[in-house]
Amino acid sequence: MADEVYARLARLLDTLPNGFPATRSGLEVKILERIFTPEEAALFCDLRLKAETAEQIAQRTGRPLEGLEETLITMWQKGEIAGFKYGGVMLFKMMPWIVGIYEMQLNRMDREFALLCEQYGRHWGRQFIKHGPQIMQVVPVEREIPVNQEALTYQQVSSLIESSQSFMVNTCICKKSQGLLNRPCSKPTEVCLAMAQLPGIFDNSPWGGRLINKEEAYEVLSLAEQAGLVHMTYNVASGHHYICNCCGCCCGILRAVKMGAPNLLNSRYYAEIDPNLCTGCGTCATERCQVDAIMAGENHYQVNRQRCIGCGLCATTCPEKAVTLVRKNPDELTCPPGDDNAWLEERARRRGVDFSAYK
User: Fold this and answer.
1) Under the phi-then-psi rule, with left for phi > 0, alpha for psi from -120 to 50, and beta for the rest, what region is 273?
2) What is the pLDDT of residue 1?
3) Residue 236 near residue 339, CB atoms below 8 Å
4) Average pLDDT over the chain, rounded to an integer
5) Does the pLDDT at position 148 exceed 70?
6) Residue 12 near residue 358 (C-beta atoms within 8 A)
7) What local confidence, expressed as pLDDT, does residue 131 receive?
8) Which among 85, 159, 257, 303 is most buried, taking Cβ atoms within 10 Å?
9) What percentage of the chain has pLDDT greater than the value 70?
10) Residues 88-99: what's their mean pLDDT?
């Protein structure tokens, strides 16, 4: 009976546009068994991607209302579902595996769980690459955006911050996971920035993040840039709620890009090195680039455009100002979906899955 509920949950998660592909070994079920009790797994299957109150869930599913909100709050605290208070009322909804449940397991991550997720991540990634749209987009270091080119709001870190009222910073789960696997990162770890347009949305958060104000959010981003971390956010035009600050040694997406994987990142710029200014110090290649996109030439360094993600980190520390960001040609640019719902619809279309039952 318990095995069946986990299998049902796995199938549901794979029906969601983001995907949760099955493995021959049943690795995905082992992961779910580490996260959910059988009762929690069954309740998750009764939720929707649309936020609902406990009363609405009880009415729709026929579940008893008594104790339901308490169970949902427990699942929210364990990072199994999304939950937030709006107008004094708690709302709950299901989350996909990535971005969603996995990222919320920070406080429950141990070495055994990290190993399971690392093994499954390779399988999940292969499935994701086959489709699209890209799951994340690069937000370049803003001061490196060419002054003669107008950047849209979702291409500017400052616009994402200024449109938000609540902020929280947390430890990067990728860095924590790699540390548990004996691959510790030397870069700052408290760099995952969550933000929301509603005030107080992160009050009493169960995941251990630190509440910060707008000025401190800018400080987090500045620290990330100094450390050579790439700003990335959800690949949508509006409704952003996080900025990841990622390194090529821990981030699953950047690691995949380093290996040549396509369809993971949406970027609008690429770096260009002026051979007449470059003195061959190598700072851009050895200290700043997180995806191995810069290599030594005969007399100067040069950029592999196919791998460059246009983050601008190489330009910020070039002592000779030899590196600049260049906007891609219009036929190379991909407009992100309008918002979360548009992304889900496009992803479902490309995968050929019908998730209408969970809307």
Assistant:
1) beta
2) 62
3) yes
4) 93
5) no
6) yes
7) 86
8) 257
9) 97
10) 94
Please confirm whether the linkage preceding 99 is cis (ω < 30° from 0).
Answer: yes
Tokens for 254, please give them.
Answer: 């950047």
Rounded to the nearest 10 degrees, the angle between the axes of helix 111-129 and helix 27-35 is 130
Instruction: Please answer whether residues 215 and 223 qualify as being in contact, where contact means their C-beta atoms are separated by less than 8 angstroms.
Output: no
To the nearest 10 degrees (0 to 180), the angle between helices 68-77 and 54-61 is 120
Quickly tell me which residue has 């196919």 as its tokens. 306
What's the token pair of residue 5? 């509920």
pLDDT in the model for residue 348: 96
pTM of the model: 0.92
pLDDT over threshold 90, residue 166: yes
For residue 345 the two structure tokens come to: 């619809």
Three-state SS annotation for the chain: CHHHHHHHHHHHHHHCCCCCCCCCCCHHHHHHHHHCCHHHHHHHCCCCCCCECHHHHHHHHCCCCCCHHHHHHHHHHCCCCEEEEECCEEEEECCCHHHHHHHHHHHHCCHHHHHHHHHHHHHHHHHHHCCCCCCEEECCCHHHCCCCCCCCHHHCHHHHHHCCCEEEEEECHHHHHHHHCCCCCCCCCEEEEEEECCCCCCCCCCCCCEEECHHHHHHHHHHHHHHCCEEEEECCCCCCCEEEEECCCCCHHHHHHHCCCCCCEECCEEEEECCCCCCCCCHHHHHHCCCCCEEECCCCEEECCCCCCCCCHHHHCCCCCCEEEEECCHHHCCCCCCCHHHHHHHHHHHHCCCCHHHC
pLDDT above 70 for 149: no
Amino acid letter for position 194: A
Per-residue pLDDT, averaged over 107-114, amounts to 95
Other Cβ atoms within 10 Å of 300 Cβ, number:
15
Please tell me the predicted confidence (pLDDT) of residue 130.
84
Give whole-number Cα distances, 125 to 4, 134, 246, 252, in Å.
Answer: 25, 12, 17, 9
**What pLDDT is stored for residue 152 in this prediction?**
57
β-pair type (190-196, 166-171)? antiparallel
